[in-house]
Amino acid sequence: QVAEAKGKAEEARLRAQAALDKANQTRARVESSNKELRELISQVKAFLKEGADPESIEVVASRVLELSLPAAPDQIHRLAEEIKTRVRSLASVDAILEQTAGDVRQAGQLLQDAQRARSRAEGVRGTAEAVRQALEEARRAQGMAEQALQQAASDIQHSERVLGTVRAPAEQQLAGAMEQIGLLDRQTDALKVKRANNSLAATRAQEGVLVGQESRAQQLRDEAAGLLQDAQGKLQRLRALEEEYERNERVLDAKAAQLGGLEARMREVLATINQQVQIYNTCQ
């Protein structure tokens, strides 16, 4: 790519140099034509100072105005020779020169407009090319991203398959190990129970002599515990009775207060009735 870029740069440089050479040649031809034209103008002015026939001036001026500006050097030379032979009595050289200069300026302006339009077109074309390249790069990047995603999905599926093939034997080994651990735990528990039974049997054999005395003491302890429990039960029942009595007393107080309120309300109603009766009797 670097070599290709260098080649394109060299090609562009050669084209630019060729265009410069061509422009220099054109400028040289234009300068030569301008020199001949200035010489012709000098001759015409010198001729006008000597005087001329008006009809001849009009004929030559009309013929000159009808002429078109040539493009090739040989045409310019032939036109210059024709002008030299036909404008001996020309009187309006300055007007013709001014019109010619205006045409030249207009042509130059049109050339500049064309160059600017060409530059804008090249700029638009460059922008479009840059956009096209950017879109192409984006499409390539998207394609690479899609390929990467597909590869990642394939790798994930492969990893899951490998994990499945490895996990199944591991789970089987783990189940076997757990079963062996459970068997060892059960065997250990059985040994512990057997050892405890043996220890209990030995202890009972050693304490067999004290069983009678301990039985009597236990009986006394049981009787004392029974008496204590009976006393506690009676005390608890007495407390419950006291609490129930207090609750009933509070209820009776509330009922008495409610009854007192009803009595007061009845007295008020009775007084109101008596008052209405008196008013009724008075009205009669």
Architecture overview:
The protein is an all-alpha fold and 284 residues long. The protein has helices spanning 2-50, 54-66, 73-86, 93-206, 211-283. Among the domains are: 2-149, no CATH class; 246-284. The protein is elongated, with a radius of gyration of 67 Å. Residues 62-71 and 86-94 have low confidence and may be disordered. This is LAMB1/2/3/4 helical domain-containing protein. Keywords: Coiled coil. Residues 14-122 form the LAMB1/2/3/4 helical domain.
State the gist of this model.
Among the domains are: 148 residues, no CATH class; 39 residues. It is 93% helix and 0% strand.
Please describe the topology of this protein.
Layout: H1 2-50, H2 54-66, H3 73-86, H4 93-206, H5 211-283
The helicity comes to over 70%
Give the uncertain stretches in residue-range form.
62-71, 86-94
Give Rg in angstroms. Answer: 67 Å
* Strands, total number: 0
The main sheet comes to: none
What is the distance, rounded to the nearest whole angstrom, between the alpha carbons of the first and last residues? 134 Å
Q: What is the chain-wise order of helices and strands?
A: HHHHH
Instruction: Give the overall form.
Output: elongated
Strand content: under 5%
Class per helix and strand makeup = mainly alpha
**Helical run tally:** 5
Roughly what is the average pLDDT, rounded to an integer?
63
Pfam family, one: LAMB1
Domain LAMB1/2/3/4 helical: 14-122
Coiled coil: 2-50, 210-258
Protein name: LAMB1/2/3/4 helical domain-containing protein
